[in-house]
Design a protein that fits this description.
- The structure is a single chain.
- Helix content is 23%, strand content 41%.
- It is an alpha+beta fold and 103 residues long.
- It has one domain.
- The chain is globular, with a radius of gyration of 14 Å.
């Protein structure tokens, strides 16, 4: 599933969001909650903005990776299970460190 990248204008106080277009042409706004580089690939963890507005807790997120197709940057799904598990473990560790368990 290819997703075209359209960066939204933002300032430092706002979360970084992008609008992704799915294969059916539906546009969905996502908030990028994490980014990492592994094995010369760039990965993004993101949640739909409407889900982010409903809850401060991150329960589920989407992982996509950057690719270049026809000279255009696109986000694609991670089809390899081992690759996805490796990146998901990284983001899970990252997000668990950000949680303040004292509150």
């Amino acid at each position: 599933m290819d997703k075209n990248i359209n960066n939204e204008a933002m300032n430092e106080e706002m979360a970084e969001t992008i609008i992704l277009t799915d294969e059916d042409g539906k546009e969905i706004e996502f908030e990028i909650i994490g980014q990492c580089e592994k094995n010369d690939q760039t990965y993004f963890a993101m949640i739909p903005v409407e889900d982010a507005e409903k809850s401060e807790d991150i329960l589920e997120y989407v992982i996509l990776k950057m690719a270049v197709e026809d000279g255009e940057e696109v986000l694609i799904t991670v089809d390899d299970d081992d690759e996805l598990d490796d990146v998901a473990d990284y983001f899970d560790d990252l997000f668990s460190q950000a949680i303040d368990y004292d509150n």
